[in-house]
Amino acid sequence: MLLSAVAVFLWACVRGMTVGHPEARLDQWHHFYLALPVAVAGIVTRRPWLLLLASLLAVDDAWQHLQQVTGEWAYRSPLHVWFAHTLWPLKPVQWVVGWLNNLVV
Prior knowledge:
The chain is mainly alpha-helical. Helix content is 70%, strand content 6%. The protein has helices spanning 2-13, 31-45, 48-69, 78-87, 91-104; strands spanning 18-21, 24-25. The protein has a two-stranded antiparallel sheet. Helix 1 (2-13) runs parallel beside helix 3 (48-69).
């Protein structure tokens, strides 16, 4: 499942360096990027639930960008919507995301 999500994400990326939507760029933090270290942690610690979490994060982000690339520009994944309404209003979260965006540049 994680490899499928990676393939879809990369396919979306080669379409003009945007990830399905002009406002979503590769140099911005995506929850797909969070899935990668979670998957590594799951492998290293041999915890299947971390691999499941990584897969869900990756699939959610890949599905969102696949929908956007194929024409449903306004689509936001359930995890994206939850994050935007619950966590994004918190100033520390905005700071961390800004810091993470600088890491990916």
